[in-house]
Fold:
Amino acid sequence: MNYIQQAYKGKREFWMFLLTSAVVAGIFVLNFIVYLFSSPEDMDAAYELMKSIPPNLSLIINLLPFAVLLGLLFLLVKFVHQRSILSLTTARSKVDFKRIWFSFG
Structure:
């Protein structure tokens, strides 16, 4: 079975795709709505707070929501769509770490 054919595995009803998209994208939309309704003074205070945090910690704080969303996406794929996480990345029965090391080497 090749990678494209794996899209037909598991449950794949339309409402499941809508639910997964709405949950993951909804968090971004909610964040944008909060940004739109915040006052300029609050935004300036938030910028000043971020300037006072060390750069590495600031990077972690900014990337943490994406890591949480990736975990949420994995949970939705596993439990709603009833597919393995491995099926999202490869058509093989296990991860080929030699290819991963080759890509970074």
About this structure: The mean pLDDT is 88. Residues 12-87+94-104 form one domain. The chain has one domain: 12-87+94-104.
